[in-house]
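Issue 218. Parser rejects a valid record. Input:
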Amino acid sequence: MGDRQWITINNRLKEGIALINNLNTKKFQLLLSHIINSPTDDYFTDSERQKLLETLKLDQNQLQLLLQSIAYIYNQSQRVILKPTDLQKQLLDVVGFRQEKAEIFTSEWSEEAKKELGDFEKRGKLVDMQWELNLQVENDLGSKLAVPSARIELDLAKASNEKEDKVILELGEDDLQQLYNTLEVIQLKLDNISKT
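Output the parser choked on:
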């Protein structure tokens, strides 16, 4: 990840992190899980907030800061691609989480990442690629049509071992155009991320 920080820690967030660290471990896990799975940015209804105030023995401002801090740290962590062990280390060293909070956060984060991105251990990395372009000539009622097609061979190695698999793609002109357009969108997003 280099020297770029994925999170900015200011004094207000430090206060929120102190509230997180002082929170019961089980309650932290429940709050984090609720925030992650909440369909809205409000996270809790007014009646749920009232119950939280009583249960956690916090005032309104402390509760607001606690919830905002958890949500901010989680949202920022979703903007980077890290190994779970690296995330946990940064939660300890950079964010200032206590060990048990970092472990819970990393576990919840990993589960969500698996849902969205799949299991990292089952993913393959591109080792090599070959391609060839074919031009087939078809006869259509006396006129000759040139039909381009491409064959792309990808050599992939699994993250869990170095055994290589081959994936062969046979693509017609429309498929090639769609692949090209998709790669262009990916490149634009990568360019935008590197600018921030």
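Fixed in the parser; the record now loads. The mean pLDDT is 84.
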